[in-house]
Every structure is written in structure tokens, then in C-alpha cells.
Amino acid sequence: MGRTLLSAAFDFGFDSSLNKSKSNSKAADKSVRPTQAECSFVTDRGVGSGFNGPMAKPTSLDRTYEYRRRLPHYQKPGQAIFVTFCKQGREPFSTLARDLVLQHCVHDNGKRICLHAAVVMPEHVHMLLMPMVDEQGWPYAMPAILKQIKGVSARSVNRLPGCSWPVWQEESFDHVLRSTESFAEKLEHIRQNPVRRGLGLRPEDYQWLWVCGADTLVRRL
What we know:
Blueprint lengths: L4 H5 L5 H11 L40 E3 L3 E3 L6 E7 L7 H13 L5 E8 L3 E8 L10 H16 L10 E9 L3 H17 L12 E3 L10
Antiparallel strand pairs: 1-2, 3-5, 3-6, 4-5, 4-7
């Protein structure tokens, strides 16, 4: 029998994580599976048919699913990830800078990530996303995804008048979600973040909040 992406992933450090994910999936509720064109709730069952093809040999940053800087970072196939990255320095983002950062957060939705929600606060960003799979059946790796978002947005912000400094802190904070309950909690955390900070009476009042879905869409760029 041919090797699947999940079976081959054991060779690249996912043994304990994927075994746990498989056992948890038996008890997980069925949910709508994400496609290349839409977002949905996710469970431990994985992403559609994206993990059924042959696996190519991994390469550097694009295939880095577990790494450590000052904090450990893990990525599991088919599971949503809550990500936070912070601005360098104490000066808050201007309104125009927040416009640019949000545009870059949303840009790869449906291409390399399934973006569920994003909010650009004056000094940090929250994103709730799930990496999609490339043409070879590999999930896009978070280091490459974040490098793209942070790198391009930093260049855009530094083109603004009076901006010419490092934009982002090097480290980011990410958490793999393990249930639809934690997914809902993180989604609501993102929505309510501006309200808790006194930047609006309702999530909809904050213009740098983006939530996927026709009924929950706050802003579309």
C-alpha cells in the first residue's frame, strides 16, 4: 500500500502528537471540513482529502512543523492554530498602519491559510487560522506563513511617513486548538479583544477586525 501524508509524517517528529490526535478524533463531533474556498470549524479528523496523496521530500522552512526559539512551536495537520505576534516598541500602530497589516493578514486566505478571524490591535495581532496544503499534499508550515505576513506587512508599514524601524518582535505565540470548544473560545477572544480594551462597545465597532463567514463578517477588504 502507498504511504499517506499522515503515515509519512511519523518520520518527521509527529509520532506522539498524531497518535494522540487519532485517539481524540474518535470522540470528536463531526464538522464541516474546510476547502480551498471556505472556512469552517475543525476537529482532530484533519482536512478533507488533502492528506491522501504521495508525500514529497521535505525542505527547510516550508516543511518545519516543530521548532523552538524562546518558546516551543508545534503544528498538527488539520488543526486550527491561534497565533499572536507583537509590535516592536511602545508606539501604537497608526490607523493607516493597521489598515495595511490587516490587508496582509487576510491576503493569503484561501491560498495558503484558511483564516477564521484576525484582529489588528494598536500593538499586537491575533489570528485564528488553519494552514492549507500545497500541491504536493504538505501543509504550509507556520514559520513560512508568519515570515510572509510579518515581512510583507513590515515593508508596507515602513513605507509610511515617519516609519523606518523594525516593526515586529521576532518571537510569536501560537497554540494548536484541540476541540471545537477551544476554537469557539479563541474566536470569541479575538472578537471581544477591542471591546475589552475600550475601543468599541461591540466587536462590529472596531474596523480592524475580520471574521470569516457571511453572518459573522465584520470587515471585508
